[in-house]
Design goal:
The chain has about 120 residues and is of the alpha+beta class. The chain has four helices and two strands, in the order ββαααα. A two-stranded antiparallel sheet has the order 1-2.
């Protein structure tokens, strides 16, 4: 897989402050439930857009939201915006739950449709 998954452990190679480390991440380490690949399936472009919007507006919970939180939490950690992956996940959940993530999507849509 090219992303963090909820279906199995994810192998990580990290270089931080010149130190190389290898470890695995599991969904359970961060309070998520393991799921099947079918639970994460999307669809065509319109269906995927609807799934994304539903995650950001808070109406879709479960594995699809959880995998977004897991990946975005890791991204915030990698970017140095969170001290830990767990903190990154919490920041991601707050961005969704507060409506800030959806507001950013709406802003992006508006700007991308301007001439």
């Amino acid at each position: 897989m090219d992303e963090i998954t909820l279906t199995a452990p994810t192998s990580v190679c990290e270089v931080k402050d010149g130190i190389f480390s290898e470890y695995s991440l599991t969904p359970e380490q961060f309070g998520f439930n393991r799921c099947s690949k079918e639970d994460l399936l999307g669809g065509n472009a319109q269906e995927n857009a609807a799934i994304s919007r539903s995650i950001l507006d808070g109406s879709l919970t479960g594995p699809k939201r959880d995998v977004v939180l897991f990946n975005s939490g890791c991204a915030l950690y990698i970017a140095g915006r969170a001290e830990t992956i767990a903190q990154g996940i919490a920041l991601s959940a707050d961005a969704i739950d507060s409506g800030r993530a959806l507001a950013q999507l709406q802003k992006f849509i508006k700007l991308s449709n301007e001439e």
